[in-house]
TrEMBL record:
Protein name (record): ATP synthase subunit c
Family annotation (HAMAP family): ATP_synth_c_bact
InterPro entries for this protein: ATP_synth_csu_bac/chlpt, ATP_synth_F0_csu, ATP_synth_F0_csu_DDCD_BS, ATP_synth_F0_csu_sf, ATPase_proteolipid_c-like_dom, F/V-ATP_Csub_sf
Function comment: F(1)F(0) ATP synthase produces ATP from ADP in the presence of a proton or sodium gradient. F-type ATPases consist of two structural domains, F(1) containing the extramembraneous catalytic core and F(0) containing the membrane proton channel, linked together by a central stalk and a peripheral stalk. During catalysis, ATP synthesis in the catalytic domain of F(1) is coupled via a rotary mechanism of the central stalk subunits to proton translocation.
Sequence intervals crossing the membrane: 12-35, 47-69
Keywords assigned by UniProt, alphabetized: ATP synthesis, Cell membrane, CF(0), Hydrogen ion transport, Ion transport, Lipid-binding, Membrane, Transmembrane, Transmembrane helix, Transport
Gene (name only): atpE
């Protein structure tokens, strides 16, 4: 019995789940920080968006690797 195929779709699915969890954690920490110290919003907001960008970049990188590695 021979199994053929690849796991690209599963790999991208796992990276998308990881990205979703990461974005949730980043914005949960942002909301928690702003709720505790509202005056720190101007400092925390750019950091939250930078965390969002890095987390989504990793998910996009997973998509690229899913197509590159056959």
């Amino acid at each position: 019995m021979e199994i053929s195929g690849n796991l690209n779709a599963i790999g991208y699915g796992l990276s998308a789940i990881g990205g979703g969890i990461g974005v949730g954690l980043v914005f949960a920490a942002f909301i928690n920080g702003v709720a505790r110290q509202p005056e720190a919003q101007r400092v925390l907001q750019p950091l939250a968006f930078m965390g969002l960008a890095f987390t989504e970049a990793l998910a996009i990188l997973g998509l690229v690797f899913a197509f590159v590695w056959n």
